[in-house]
Amino acid sequence: PLFIVIDALGNLPFVISLSEGMSQPERHRLVNIAVVTAALVGLVFLFLGQAVLRLLGISVGSFAIAGGIILVILSIKYMLTGHMVEATREEMVAVVPMGTPLTVGPATITTLILLALQYPIYIVLLSFLLNIVIAWIIFRQSDSISRFMGRGGLKAFSQVFNLLLAAIGVSMVLRGLDLVGMFKLTL
């Protein structure tokens, strides 16, 4: 389940679009910061997730709604302006939106919390770390993938994936509304 919710392959177009115009060392630094951020967020929620949400009085549904709204806003901004965030320090882009919520967001956090209730913690930890390493490898190969697809192919791919990101955001909002009991989600 963690491989699916971390979705490194699905997030690759966002990594490419967010690192557009960067040199290879800058892109690698961006990927490293994003993956470390994702790993730290995931580890905190794996070990302290239920307690943090309870302490703050935040339900998983509320968390999903907030994460979904952020993803929709970022996606719409990209479709309208051609970039998700203003030109800013690469560390900020690596932390938000790459590290979280794209790589480790509400779906991953929820999955980690649920898996920790079902399996021994060391199994969940090993699985999470393995998936983070897989995401890092995929993100680091973005240069090769970018060269293979070309500028036009990447732009088209990015636009389609930004539309999908908006749909994922809407889906997260709906699931969150279902979890808080405000909307009944039917499949």
Specify the biggest β-sheet: none
Please tally the β strands and state the result.
Answer: 0
Helix content: over 70%
Q: What is the beta-strand fraction?
A: under 5%
State the secondary-structure class.
mainly alpha
The N- to C-terminal Cα distance equals: 20 Å
The H/E string reads HHHHHHHH
- Taken from the alpha-carbon principal axes, the silhouette is globular
The helix count comes to: 8
Mean pLDDT: 83
Give the low-confidence spans.
none
Instruction: Using the CA coordinates, give the radius of gyration.
Output: 16 Å
Give your account of this protein's structure.
This protein is an all-alpha fold and 187 residues long. It contains eight helices and no strands. Helix 2 (8-18) crosses helix 7 and helix 3 (24-56) crosses helix 6. It is globular.
Topology:
Blueprint (H helix, E strand, L loop, with lengths): L1 H5 L1 H11 L5 H33 L3 H22 L8 H14 L2 H13 L2 H20 L1 H38 L8
At a glance:
With 187 residues, the chain is mostly helical. It is 83% helix and 0% strand.
Task: Please name the defining characteristics of this protein.
globular, 0% strand, mainly alpha, 83% helix, 8 helices, 187 residues
